[in-house]
Amino acid sequence: MRLNELLRSARLQFQKLDTLLFNDLKLFIRDRKSLILVMLTPFLILSILINIFYFSDVASTIKGVKIGVCDMDNSDFALTSDIFKVTRITGDCEQQAADLVRTGVNRGAIIIPRNFQEDMKEGKGGEITLYLDNAKSTTAIVTSDAVKAYVSDLNERIGKEFILTAWDNLRKLNGNLRYLVGNLEKARPIAITLQEKLQIANEQLGSVDFASHQQALSDVIDYLNMLEIQLDTINNSFVSTVPSIPYIPKTTGASVVIQEYETSSQMLRQTYCAAGDPLLLIPNPVCTIFNYTDSIVSGFKDADSNISAYEDSLNAKITELNAQAASLNSTISQLNEYIRTGSDKNGQLRERIDTARNDLLFIQEKTQNISKTIIALNDSVNNYLSDIIRVTDELNETIKVLDSYTQKDPETILRPVSVDIQPVFVKKLEIFYRMPAFMSIILLFITLFISSSLIVNERKGGTMARIFLSPISMFFYVFEKMLYLLHLCVLAIVSMFIASIIFSVHIPISFPLALVLIVASLVYITLGILIGAMSKSENTSLLTCLVVGFPLMFLSGAFSPPELMGRVARTVTQYLPLTINTDLVEKITIYNTTIDMTSLLILIGMTVVFYLLAVLFIWKKPTLK
Amino acid sequence: MLEISSITKKFGDYTALNGVSFNLKEKELVSLLGTNGSGKTTIIKIIVGFEKETSGAVKYKGKPMKQKERSTIIGWAPQEDSFYGNLTLFENMIYFGNLNNVERSEARKKADELLKLLKLDHKKNTLAKNLSGGMKRRLNMAIALMHSPKILILDEPEAGVDPMSRVTLWEVVEEVKKNGTTILLVTHNLLETESLSDRIVIMDAGKVIFEDSPKELKSKYHERNIENAFKRAVEKR
């Protein structure tokens, strides 16, 4: 019984779902507006977008951009490109050209200043002014890039001319250097030989013992000096005479004293030593002293007689010597006479010594100078030869360097680095890369509009209130609406795929792509239902859809990449459903990667949140009246 | 059968209903009358469950009525066209019948019966949007009756309907009443519903000021014309 009830209940639930879904689809088919919105609008919008973005790149598509060229130099400036439609203005026209841009007549103006060509020729450089209508960003970028490219070519042309001339001069210089080096190379062996000979001469000079020669000369000079001094000494030594030796006087004092002693001692001896005293058992000391002193004085007496004899002998000798001195003095007088008479020869000898000494000093000085000169000369010649060899070597190096330059093409120096752009994708039309974003945006708007208006209409018409009064939960009701709207989303997606096929913008259909589009559709459906649940009228819901949809669209990166956005927008955009949806579709269709499950789960999470909020809002207010 | 017991409803400081009490007996037709802003729509919303009462209760057979019970007990025909214009009459009825747990085969049978009862069987396969005003009201009523509710609430069914169609409409209401359905009729048209109504409930400023038969109303205010009696009742208040 209970099982039967359960089965009946389940059948009734399915019947309800089936009825609701079938009814909604029937209503959709009978509602032309919805039919157009879901089936034709995606097709039409995508067709329009495909046509707008049916080009390879911006530069090749833009044509006829109006440019005014104010040529104040009457130069040969010629901006020949299909991109531009050039109008030439001459005279003092800068203001006029700028005004034409400011008033929107032209998209840009190029100002060639006076003396531009002359300045270029003189190498002063020049500046071209470009006025840009930056209100039109795309044409502004293209114009700017094209003019920069032209100026770059112009710079290259001018630079090339200059470098080519310089190259010719370098080549000539190199030729001259080669000639010079050729001759120097010929001189090199001679220089080397000369250097070797100098080396030998140096060695020979080195073997001469200049020092010993110098020493010998010095010794001779010293000898001459000494000779002169001796000569002077000799001359001076014979000036004085030998004096007489005085006689030694006779010594008399000792004999007088000895006599006085003998007299005195005689008297004393008689007094004290004449009679013998029997009483005296020991000899008389005074007599003993007298005996002693008598012996000493007797000695003195002998000595005195000897001295006197010696003095006599000495005086005899002195007499003899004085006689000899007199004889010597006589001889000295004769010698002085000789010296005096021989002074002329003496003077001549002195002169000869001076001359010889001076000659020797001169020779010494000259020898030193010659030695120094030879060394200096030797160094100079050696340095000179070394310089010749070094210069030759350096010139050879210079020639090598010049060769390495002059063998190059000047263009490779002007443009040493070039960029070889290798696109990672096969070159396709712009629309191929924009399709994921466009499809997602169309899906977003179609789904938001249809979902929100469905809910508003159901509520407004009272059918929601009726359904609310029937035994159907709001969860079930919203789920059914999601299911129904998903059918419409599938139709919209199919419609877009048809458009892509018709316009040959092939999008590879795959399970991951279908899954992502379905999940994205569910996010937009629940968001649309939520907007509808919160809106009191169709106008409110449509406006809310626009308010929600436009930021999502512009933040999705479809028209402006997130890298160009501000920091806040860049952060916010990565959490927005349309951005995640676009990113997922791009990864599958362009980058051929697998589904990013995290992103997909975020979308599913958003669906759940929007679904719960939508249920809450509808449950709180199922009717407008 | 249905008891509205001391219901008060406040919207912030504003008291829309102030202790409203009345009841519906089985198989009777009660007309709910009142001036604009008297609280008729609010009490209907509370009965069908769109609004929650601040205090009091809606009781069915003596017990507070749950939301689930409401969907089976009450059939509600709102003032506006609460059906899908792009569905035929038959499709609309089947659709709402199914939503109210009526099985498909049964729903078809019931739809046919009701269409006949409400004199719409000749328009069975016409798109609902192409019906006249009176027919739309009847379709509203038919949809409300698809799940055979015990109580039918009709919210100003005569609004915007021409006199000729109104006559048919009241005839249909009488037929439904004869079939044993309890009806709560919200209306401004006393003259036309006087004969149908077993009782009248008059509301004014969120309160019930009269609850009795039309005859009693006229008697109370010594008026032959029920509209005059109603006017007196409201003025006296």
Order of helices and strands of chain B: EEEHEEHEHHHEHEHEEHH
What's the multimeric state? heterodimer
Mean pLDDT of chain B: 87
* Distance from first to last alpha carbon of chain B: 29 Å
Q: Give the overall silhouette of chain A.
A: elongated
Radius of gyration of chain A: 70 Å
Strand order of the largest sheet of chain A: 2-1-3-4
What is the approximate shape of chain B?
Answer: globular
Strand order of the biggest β-sheet of chain B: 6-7-8-3-9-10
Number of helices of chain A: 19
Strand content of chain B: 25-35%
Question: What can be said about the biggest beta sheet of chain A?
Answer: 4 strands, mixed
Largest interface: A-B, 24 and 33 residues
Give the count of helical stretches of chain B.
9
Q: Do you know the CATH architecture of chain B?
A: 3-Layer(aba) Sandwich
- Work out the helicity level of chain A: over 70%
Would you give an account of this structure?
The complex is a heterodimer of chains A (625) and B (237). Chain A is mainly α. Chain A has a 4-stranded mixed β-sheet with strand order 2-1-3-4, sandwiched between helices. Among the domains of chain A are: 21-55 and 428-620, no CATH class; 59-135, no CATH class; 238-341. Chain A has helices at residues 2-30, 32-52, 58-61, 94-102, 116-121, 137-207, 210-237, 253-273, 285-341, 343-406, 410-414, 430-461, 463-469, 474-502, 511-534, 538-555, 567-573, 577-589, 597-620; strands spanning 65-71, 84-90, 108-112, 129-132. The mean pLDDT of chain A is 80. In chain B, strand 1 and strand 2 (14-24) form a beta hairpin. In chain B, helix 3 (89-99) runs parallel beside helix 5 and helix 5 packs parallel to helix 6 (163-178). In chain B, strands 6-7-8-3-9-10 form a 6-stranded mixed β-sheet, with helices on both faces. Chain B has one domain: P-loop containing nucleotide triphosphate hydrolases (Rossmann fold, 3-Layer(aba) Sandwich), CATH 3.40.50. Chain B is globular. Chain B is α/β, with parallel strands linked by helices and 237 residues long. At the A-B interface, helix 1 and helix 13 of A face helix 1, helix 2 and helix 3 of B.
